[in-house]
């Protein structure tokens, strides 16, 4: 018997929606002259919310591989937006923080990100959001089980 998901390309729907959001957000960043990529913003957002986290933790939080996260942090450091500091507990480990300029960039960019989120969500309700999160979490869990 065919399962309903066999004929529904839900992954394609998710993927195309994510690409549309990323492209629209990148255009907003470019138009505003932020000199940031969406991936750089994602790392800045995590660093603002979790100061002093390791690159491995950033990797896990963003689901990006370690070399990609290293490259993003290197670029943010070159722009003066982040810095690595040795961990007090383990001198072999570096923790990543936003600089003052990085925190200022966060506050500068956040209104544009928030506006894009509001636009994307449109007139959907809180109940719609709860269903969306439940469904996405279920798909994530189902794929993660091996």
TrEMBL record:
Q: Which residues belong to the signal peptide in this entry? A: none
Q: Which Pfam families match?
A: MarR_2 (PF12802)
In terms of superkingdom, the source organism counts as: Bacteria
Q: Which SUPFAM superfamilies match?
A: Winged helix' DNA-binding domain
Q: Which SMART domains match?
A: HTH_MARR
Q: Which PANTHER family match?
A: TRANSCRIPTIONAL REGULATOR, MARR, TRANSCRIPTIONAL REPRESSOR OF EMRAB OPERON
Q: What is this protein called?
A: Winged helix-turn-helix transcriptional regulator
